[in-house]
Amino acid sequence: KQRDSRGRQLERLLRLAQQGDFDAFVVEDRVAGESTEADSCQSAWWLSEHHPGSGDTVVTLSGRSDSVRLLDYLLARGADFAGQSNFDGKRALHEAAQADALAAADWLLRVARVPVDPLKRADWTPLMLASAKPFEPMLRLLLSHGARPGLVNKDGWTPLHLACRVGQPACVRLLLAADPGQADRPARNGRTPAHTLALHGHAGLLSELLSGRPELANAADSCGCTPAMEACKAGSLACLLVILDIVGGVGADRWDSAGYTCLHHAAVCGQTELCRYLLKLLPDAGAADSTGGTRDRVTPLQLACREGQSELVRLLLLPRSEGGGGADPSQLDARGRSAEDYARLSSGSEECRAVVAEALRRLRQPQD
Length: 368
Description:
Layout: H1 2-19, H2 22-31, H3 58-65, H4 68-76, H5 92-99, H6 102-110, H7 126-131, H8 136-144, H9 159-166, H10 169-178, H11 193-199, H12 203-212, H13 227-234, H14 237-247, H15 262-268, H16 272-281, H17 300-306, H18 310-317, H19 339-345, H20 350-364
Helix pairs in contact: 1-2, 1-3, 3-4, 3-5, 5-6, 8-10, 9-10, 9-11, 11-13, 12-14, 13-14, 13-15, 15-16, 15-17, 17-18, 17-19, 18-20, 19-20
């Protein structure tokens, strides 16, 4: 019975700590009979109790609250802000950084003097959590206390990789200024911040990054993908133009390790307008029929059919004289499959099958 009572009280204390409701928290603490004004500096049983599911504690969750009064109270009660963590290894500073609780983070670093770079599960630091949001004032605070932007998580991502996903200019510039070497540092999968910026369509920041590091424009990750290919996946013509301005048209002709070109990637993702640009850019009249270096000798048209990209299929089949790709609907891959066969592989691609069938009919008509 006492255990059930404590369990319910812990739930209430955890909720109040997360909310930063100082007055209600103090009342709840005193209701338990564990403290009075006379013994407010004595330890309490709930300081070391973990939520059975997440492992959260009153101490760790207080980091989210941004309530300095609550933090002062917990410190007086004997809280261990530096060492206590939940089951994922998150400490109070992790919680503050992720919640953008600036006052709490400042208090933890100045008053409680917690380490600025504790690692949680997967080796994430508070700076990484703040970079992923991103919170510029929080980044400035953590960096001013010595947070190391060169640390990487288990996937090899730096804070800069994470900030580049969101693309908040001030945060990216701040992290670059703190450690310029992050720009050249690939993750475990070989992806650089340039790949990340291109995939998420942040053309302005990509231009800034590549202006001082043009070699990154053609860097390949572990799958052979370049930033240009990432821009094609995202349908970001602005990013592609930034990259091609540095590497030239050759950047659109490269293959990844699967043999895909930029046109293949754009076709898979249904990026019609970007494909339209690539078809104008590539001088080869057979670009839409290119198999790149693919083992199955698959074309962009076949991939677009497989993915049910009917609008793109129409563009690829349109004659080059009309701004299309002039693709051959009868071309077969290494297994003898046509574009029509690829359309059958995907549910919901009846329209693609109809478009290809009409193109085949027109192709054969002169022979009838």
